[in-house]
């Protein structure tokens, strides 16, 4: 490590440890040169490095300052979806997104894919390889319909962190969270029923609503506090809503985590209208705060909350291990899980169970939590630096996706198309609405490790945006 | 190998090669002793061995005879289900069956599990272990929503054997055949629609009908020729049936294969009523005849046949690799597959693709086909020997399950319960009816390699039946 790298690492550490807070002035070049016994140019090089990483900014004639983390001033506006239940459209757009392989060249930030290059996944991969070699017969037969008991036991252990007291018999393992959500939707509804959802909302759950012959009632949602309980209550008064489907912790795509208090109030509201809550907790374990936030399920007194999750965002989507804590709907959920895809493969379940049991999962999560938080700050800085000043952007409390709101007259479908030609991929806004709203928004993933790549993606986006402006 | 074993092996070979046909008298003990230069007692021991394997029978004062294969005289009667569409019941009974682990002691013949101890699976297991070790990253990311292209290419190759000309783009890979069936049902129907099915029928597809809010119209079905086209046509005239779901090749549970001619007539019938056919071909590749029978899909001119299959019966259910050739319903099928469980894991798909490509699959199938046919004959002989003479039993053309029809007043639910206490498991008849018919029937698996175990299971069944008789 060279002298300047060494210095920039130390400064970075000090910023991360909070010795210098966002907005603080950092020591002058001269001062650092003196303190560390290095040349002026070494210090300058170190600061250039930190600027590059968008951790500090140089203010002319004032020196270097820690980049601000908070961008509360330009969060996306509260959403204003249509005030009635509607059929979900946008499948063709979702399909086009899904069909983009991640092996394409360029910077593909359209899928909510976690960083899977981290060495903290190695113990899991080794277990998978070992099991495959040493106990291949486990990969052949049917396992327990509800999932491997070893895994369900470990899932109960994880549940404690979110405030849940679960028993292995309370759980049903699924083929990822997508199956969990689909199964739960079918378990608590009849065809034609209405489901209340956040707006914007994850396209996978909305398409599941469509496929189950349900209607979606999009509820206004704040980018920092989540679904509007006032608007939800009005909707509950007005329409025969059968269930509420929310992602209250590290929301996809908005990134917020609802407060414990609000989670409990949402639960009480569901209780007073006697309806079910389907809680998508897929990003819950990679909230940046530790211990992780409580789930709505942790307030559940009467089994009306169906918690859905998986290891697709915390570990890797290809593992295809998800689960449901279905509460009072267990029997119906088990039935629909059976018809949906029968038993889940045993080996990945056992490998994950061991990964949790031996502490590998906790270690991995700890690493990813810190990494993603840093990458969020970097991405926010890059957006602030390169995108137009009226750009609004979410401030996620966890996970690795940002929601960006552009000028009203920008069409993100066209923007995506143009950016794709330049090798940059992200997910256009209309996919996150049942009815194709959010045309001027997009979701972008920042899990990719390469800081330069992420920054170059934003630069390309900015230059394409400039072309758009000059055309209009 | 001892002298008597050597002799019995030779005799067995002659029987299998057809030198001696079922019912033929075999050479006398004296004659064989002379021909082979062995003692009388050696020949007697050899014959005892063949009797044990139920290949020959000793008739007092007449000598030894080859056991008959054909039992056409006592096939189960044509079924007579209720003449109207009905909701599917029996979930609790199916659930109880599914919850019986295969790791229980005794002889568990309730699940339609293939023989997974065969060495012909070794190349596949090796590939799986190698991929897991050498390319673990393939197990982490999302693959193609429609399934790995390598696998889809190999599936097209397999399709040729059943008379189908498919293109990789015509296929959607699923998480086993259960997902394939569920997805197809949802793709071709709206809630409340009616589906025509064989009777008896696989409980998994019936439960999928239930979960999709559909009604089942059970059609009378012959144990040797399959669904009655006359009865089906009457039903099509009388009810607004939306699709026909059939397993025309190595039917579960009846074992028959419909003739090519009848398959084509069924297709024409669907064409004239302009409805879809969902064809479950899961056992198709382990038909005993070679080349394997054609599928209904092979007659498809206008894309109305949705072929569903998987490697769960031919290779191993734990692999969870199934597929759909959805014809004109491809877009809807892709949508529902996506919401059902998103992408399928990549590694098992690649391993299976390689298994097919390098010839391992063909070799494996060839072995299993011959093995299962022998085991069928043995099981039929054991049933003939030990169960009451009025027992009716199917004569499967492939696969590894038998359907047994007992005296009308035998309750198979109680019989199963009693046999379970004695360590023998099989599947009671009512699970195979939408409305709990076939109480005096059961399905039994004969894939298990241990001949003695299978025979002991039948003996125990016989002794429990005797107790039942004495009680009534």
Task: Give the tags.
homodimer; 472 residues; alpha/beta; Arc Repressor Mutant, subunit A; Aspartate Aminotransferase, domain 1; Aspartate Aminotransferase, domain 2; 3 domains; eight-stranded mixed β-sheet; 16 strands; 42% helix; 14% strand; transferase (chains A, B); PyrdxlP-dep_Trfase_major (chains A, B); WH_DNA-bd_sf (chains A, B); DNA binding (chains A, B); DNA-binding transcription factor activity (chains A, B)
Description:
Two copies of one chain form a homodimer. The longest helix of chain A is centred in the C-terminal third of the chain and has 27 residues, at 360-386. The radius of gyration of chain A is 23 Å and the shape is globular. In chain A, helix 1 (3-16) crosses helix 3. In chain A, a hairpin with a 3-residue loop joins strand 1 and strand 2. Chain A is 42% helix and 14% strand. In chain A, strands 4-11-10-9-8-5-6-7 form an eight-stranded mixed β-sheet, sandwiched between helices. In chain A, strands 12-13-16-15 form a four-stranded antiparallel β-sheet, covered by helices on one side. The model of chain A has no long low-confidence stretch (mean pLDDT 93). Chain A has helices spanning 3-16, 29-36, 40-52, 91-98, 122-134, 149-161, 176-188, 203-211, 229-238, 260-272, 330-341, 346-357, 360-386, 412-421, 451-471; strands at 56-59, 63-66, 107-108, 172-174, 194-199, 215-222, 226-227, 241-246, 276-280, 305-310, 322-325, 392-393, 401-405, 424-425, 427-428, 441-445. The first copy, chain A, has 472 residues and is α/β, with parallel strands linked by helices. The first copy, chain A, has three domains: 3-66, Arc Repressor Mutant, subunit A (Orthogonal Bundle), CATH 1.10.10; 72-77 and 104-112 and 363-471, Aspartate Aminotransferase, domain 1 (Alpha-Beta Complex); 91-100 and 119-361, Aspartate Aminotransferase, domain 2 (3-Layer(aba) Sandwich). The interface between A and B is large, with 61 and 61 residues.
């Amino acid at each position: 490590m060279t002298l300047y790298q060494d210095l920039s690492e130390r400064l970075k550490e000090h910023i991360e440890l909070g010795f210098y807070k966002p907005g603080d002035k950092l020591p002058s070049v001269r001062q650092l040169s003196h303190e560390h016994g290095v040349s002026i140019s070494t210090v300058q090089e170190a600061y250039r490095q930190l600027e590059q990483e968008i951790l500090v900014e140089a203010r002319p004639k004032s020196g270097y300052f820690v980049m601000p983390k908070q961008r509360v001033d330009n969060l996306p506006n509260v959403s204003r979806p249509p005030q009635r239940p509607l059929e979900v459209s946008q499948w063709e757009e979702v399909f086009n997104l899904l069909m983009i392989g991640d092996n394409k060249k360029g910077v593909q930030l359209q899928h909510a894919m976690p960083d899977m290059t981290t060495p903290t996944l190695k113990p899991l991969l080794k277990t998978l390889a070992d099991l495959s070699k040493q106990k291949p017969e486990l990969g052949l037969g049917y396992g327990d319909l509800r999932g491997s008991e070893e895994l369900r036991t470990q899932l109960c252990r994880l549940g404690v962190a979110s405030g849940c007291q679960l028993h292995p018999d309370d759980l049903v393992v699924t083929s990822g969270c997508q199956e969990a959500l689909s199964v739960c939707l079918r378990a608590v509804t009849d065809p034609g029923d209405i489901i209340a959802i956040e707006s914007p909302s994850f396209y996978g759950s909305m398409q599941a609503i469509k496929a189950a012959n349900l209607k979606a009632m999009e509820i206004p949602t704040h980018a920092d506090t989540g679904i509007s309980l006032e608007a939800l209550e009005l909707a509950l008064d007005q329409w025969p809503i059968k269930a509420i489907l929310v992602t209250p912790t590290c929301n996809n795509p908005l990134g917020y985590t609802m407060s414990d208090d609000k989670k409990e109030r949402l639960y009480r509201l569901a209780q007073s209208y006697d309806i079910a809550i389907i809680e998508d907790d897929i990003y819950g374990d990679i909230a940046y705060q530790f211990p992780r936030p409580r789930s709505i399920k942790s307030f559940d007194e009467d089994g009306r909350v169906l918690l859905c999750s998986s290891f697709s965002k915390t570990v890797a989507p290809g593992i295809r291990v998800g689960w449901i804590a279905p509460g009072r709907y267990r029997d119906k959920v088990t039935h629909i899980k059976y018809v949906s895809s029968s038993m889940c493969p045993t080996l990945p379940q056992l490998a994950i169970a061991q990964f949790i049991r031996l502490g590998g999962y906790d270690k991995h999560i700890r690493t990813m939590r810190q990494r993603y938080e840093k990458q969020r700050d970097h991405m926010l800085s890059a957006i602030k630096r390169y995108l137009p000043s009226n750009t609004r952007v979410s401030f996620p409390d966890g996970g690795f996706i940002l929601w960006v709101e552009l000028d009203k007259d920008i069409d993100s479908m066209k923007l995506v198309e143009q950016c794709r030609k330049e090798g940059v991929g992200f997910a256009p806004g209309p996919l996150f609405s049942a009815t194709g709203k959010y045309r001027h928004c997009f979701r972008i993933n920042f899990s990719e490790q390469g800081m330069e790549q992420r920054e170059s993606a934003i630069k390309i986006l900015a230059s394409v945006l400039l072309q758009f402006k000059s055309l209009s």
